[in-house]
Amino acid sequence: MMCREITDENVDSYRKTMTPAELKRGLPVTEEIIKKVEKGRKEIKEILSKESKKKVIITGPCSIHDIQEAKDYADKIKDLSDKVDDKFLLVMRTYLEKPRTTLGWKGLINDPHLNGSYDINTGLRKARELLIYTAELGVPTGTEFLGSVTPQYIDDLISWAAIGARTTESQPHREMVSGLSVPVGFKNDTKGNVEIAVNGIKTAKHPHSFRGINQEGEICIVDTTGNEYCHVVLRGGKSWNGYVPNYDSVSIERTLNLLRDEGLPENIVVDCSHGNSGKDHEKQSRVFRHVIDDIDDGSDSIVGFMLESNLEPGNQSLSDDPSELKRGVSITDACIGWETTEDLVLDAYERLED
């Protein structure tokens, strides 16, 4: 006699997705691409280990929603990189998944058509197509890994990754990071708690075993060796009475003390957006210039910056008709435009001594 099924009561359906191996066979990488991705990773690791005096600038849209616009942005990064390469490593922010505080568009991989159809297979293909394009240009890319299986589909094209404020305390994400092949920044949480990020670094540095998938999509026990190239990303926070930035010298020193107490490398990336800018995209410039002043005064623990930047400034709401969207304008957090981005980087290049 069959027993009643009491599972999946709130599941409407299951849809098969392609395996990582199937995606990679359809959109393969060349040896030249592999070398360029490895070069980006190597440069970031050298910055974190203080073998290089360069600073890393991770700049790009809050989220990617149009891959042609993203390709155009990558072209601009390539041109700017050629002008500042001896002082800055420019990494394109290619955020393909979006965590939401409540509801909203969840990113290119999850909803590439911007209409709630959740055509994830197409989203994965679009994401990989974009990352191949940027890699061919020689532009390193950085992303936030949100889904625990996402790295298997695109990690061979990524040079830097972030664990966001909403997931930095998540044990599965810390375990995942322990097996990633790239340097990873742990952000402080949404309230501004930096100790959570430091704990994430400490955890991810060690080996772990957890359930995941392999390239063929099979559920496996994943055994990792630990990730030595993790660091803190200060992004500010929010309390009951407003935003609380943490890019000032006192906050920097407190963060360094937390890292020292745990015997961890003293590396900090400052996110110029989010709580540090009070969610005002125009104030990112002020944060960036303040931190450049600190670096110019001799602070070598600040190894880089994050900027939310797009072809055009501001943001726009996602309507029922995606064709009505303005070109190059964010559909999530407001961004600075390319003109401002370029001016900031070139000005910093002139101000910092060789």
Report on the architecture of this protein.
The chain is built from ten helices and twelve strands. By secondary structure, the chain is of the alpha/beta class. 34% of the residues lie in helices and 16% in strands. An eight-stranded parallel barrel has the order 1-2-3-4-5-8-11-12, surrounded by seven helices. It has a two-stranded antiparallel ribbon with strand order 6-7. It has helices spanning 20-26, 31-48, 67-84, 120-137, 151-154, 171-177, 195-204, 249-261, 284-296, 338-351; strands at 55-60, 88-93, 141-144, 160-163, 184-187, 209-213, 219-223, 230-234, 237-239, 242-244, 268-271, 302-308. Strand 3, helix 5 (151-154) and strand 4 form a beta-alpha-beta unit. The N and C termini lie far apart (79 Å). It has a single domain (20-351), classed as Aldolase class I (TIM Barrel), CATH 3.20.20.
